[in-house]
C-alpha cells in the first residue's frame, strides 16, 4: 500500500511537546518535597519522568515514521497478547499490588500496566475490524455486539484488578470509535442506559466506591475520610487565583494533598500557575484533540480515520475524567493526566500512540 507522505502536523507536534515539557516541570515541582522525604532525593520523580519521556520521544519518532497501516497486520496478535497479560497480572505472586489494585507487572519501582497496553491494542483492533466490516454496524446482533463483547471482556478483566479508571477510559475511547464507524444512535443510547445501570451496580458492589460517591456528593460529611482528597484538591485550586502562588510555592504538596505528582497534579498546576496556567494547559489539550480529529477527518482510508479517532479518544476521555475528579465534578477515581502526571510505561506508551497519530496526519488529503 503506497501513499504520498508529507510532514507531520506541526500543531499536533507542538501541543504534544508543550504538554510534555509542562508536565516535566510540574512533576518536579509537585513531587520534590515528597521525594526528599521518602527517598532523600528531591529529583527522584523528575529523573524517572525524564527517562520515560526520553524513551517515549524515541518511540514517538519511530511510530511517526512507520506507515500506520503496518499496525493493521498485527492488530489481532497485539490484542491476544494484551488479553494474556491482563490474565497473568491477576495471578498472585506475579501481579504487583499498588494502590489497592493488582494492576502491575514488574520488579521493584519499575513495572508496566497491561491495561495501558490494552487501550492502544483495542483501538488498533477495533479500527481494523470496523473498517473491514463497517456496513454490518447497522445491525445490532451481527454488527454491534461482537466488538462490544470484546471490549466488555477486556473491561471485565481490568475490573478484576480492580481499576475502574483505566476501564472507563478503555470503554469510553472504544465507544467513540464504534460510534464514529457508523453505529446507530438508537442502539448506542440503549446500551448507554444499560451501561449506566451496570456502572451503578459496580459502585454498589464495592463499599469503597460507595464511600467515594458519598465523598463526591458531600465531601464535608467525612472530611478526613472519603471527602479528604477532593477537599484538599479544592484547597489547592482556590488560592491559586488568576496567576497562582508561583512555581514551586504550593502549600498543598507539603503532605496535605495525596498523589500531587500523579492523579491530582492539575491541582498543583492551578495552585502554582493559577487560572492562566490551568487555561494554558487546557488550551494545549484542546489543540491536540482538534488537530488529532483533523487528522482523522483527512485520513485517506477508514482504518486511519478510526485509528486517529481512537487515539484522540484515549487522551480526551482521560483528560475529562482526571480534571473532572480534581475540580469535584466527578467522583474520585485513580487516573492520571496524560503527558502531565508522573508516569512510567503509561507515558512512553501514550507518546508512542501520539506518534501513530502523527503518522496518520502525514497522509492527510
Describe the 3D structure:
Strand 1 and strand 2 form a beta hairpin. The chain has 365 residues and is mostly helical. Helix 1 packs antiparallel against helix 11 and helix 5 packs parallel to helix 7. The protein is built from 13 helices and three strands; from the N terminus they run H-H-H-H-E-E-E-H-H-H-H-H-H-H-H-H. Strands 1-2-3 form a three-stranded antiparallel β-sheet.
Feature tags:
365 residues, mainly alpha, three-stranded antiparallel β-sheet, 13 helices, 68% helix
Strand order of the largest sheet: 1-2-3
Largest sheet: 3 strands, antiparallel
Helical stretch tally = 13
Radius of gyration: 20 Å
- Structural class, judged by helices and strands? mainly alpha
Shape: globular
Mean pLDDT: 89
What distance separates the N and C termini?
16 Å
Topology (elements, then pairings):
Elements lengths: L9 H30 L4 H22 L4 H4 L1 H14 L7 E3 L2 E7 L2 E3 L1 H19 L7 H20 L4 H17 L4 H21 L1 H11 L10 H13 L24 H34 L3 H25 L18 H17 L4
Antiparallel strand pairs: 1-2, 2-3
Please outline what is shown here.
With about 375 residues, the chain is mainly alpha-helical.
Amino acid at each position: 500500500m503506497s501513499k504520498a507522505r508529507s510532514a507531520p502536523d506541526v500543531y499536533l507536534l507542538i501541543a504534544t511537546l508543550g504538554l510534555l515539557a509542562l508536565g516535566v516541570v510540574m512533576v518536579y515541582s509537585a513531587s520534590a518535597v515528597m521525594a526528599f522525604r521518602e527517598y532523600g532525593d528531591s529529583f527522584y520523580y523528575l529523573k524517572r519522568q525524564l527517562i520515560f519521556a526520553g524513551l517515549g520521544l524515541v518511540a514517538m519518532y519511530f511510530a511517526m515514521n512507520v506507515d500506520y497501516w503496518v499496525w493493521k497486520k498485527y492488530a489481532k496478535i497485539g490484542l491476544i497478547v494484551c488479553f494474556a497479560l491482563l490474565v497473568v497480572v491477576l495471578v498472585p505472586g506475579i501481579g504487583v499490588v499498588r494502590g489497592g489494585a493488582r494492576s502491575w507487572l514488574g520488579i521493584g519501582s519499575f513495572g508496566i500496566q497491561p491495561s495501558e497496553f490494552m487501550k492502544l491494542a483495542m483501538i488498533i483492533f477495533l479500527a481494523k475490524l470496523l473498517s473491514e466490516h463497517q456496513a454490518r454496524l447497522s445491525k445490532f446482533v451481527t454488527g454491534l455486539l461482537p466488538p462490544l463483547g470484546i471490549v466488555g471482556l477486556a473491561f471485565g478483566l481490568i475490573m478484576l484488578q480492580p481499576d475502574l479508571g483505566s476501564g472507563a477510559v478503555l470503554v469510553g475511547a472504544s465507544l467513540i470509535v464504534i460510534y464514529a464507524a457508523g453505529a446507530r444512535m438508537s442502539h448506542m443510547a440503549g446500551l448507554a442506559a444499560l451501561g449506566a445501570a451496570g456502572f451503578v451496580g459496580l459502585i454498589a458492589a464495592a463499599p469503597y466506591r460507595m464511600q467515594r460517591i458519598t465523598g463526591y456528593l458531600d465531601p464535608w460529611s467525612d472530611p478526613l475520610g472519603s471527602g479528604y482528597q477532593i477537599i484538599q484538591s479544592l484547597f489547592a485550586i482556590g488560592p491559586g487565583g488568576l496567576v497562582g502562588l508561583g512555581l514551586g510555592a504550593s502549600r498543598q504538596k507539603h503532605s496535605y494533598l495525596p498523589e500531587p505528582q500523579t492523579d491530582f497534579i492539575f491541582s498543583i498546576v492551578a495552585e502554582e500557575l493559577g487560572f492562566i496556567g490551568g487555561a494554558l494547559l487546557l488550551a494545549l489539550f484542546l489543540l491536540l484533540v482538534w488537530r488529532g480529529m483533523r487528522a482523522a477527518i483527512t485520513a485517506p482510508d477508514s482504518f486511519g480515520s478510526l485509528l486517529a479517532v481512537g487515539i484522540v479518544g484515549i487522551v480526551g476521555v482521560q483528560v475529562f475524567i482526571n480534571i473532572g475528579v480534581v475540580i469535584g465534578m466527578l467522583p474520585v477515581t485513580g487516573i492520571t493526566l496524560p503527558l502531565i502526571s508522573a508516569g512510567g510505561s503509561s507515558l512512553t506508551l501514550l507518546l508512542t500512540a501520539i506518534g501513530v497519530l502523527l503518522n496518520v496526519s502525514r497522509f492527510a488529503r
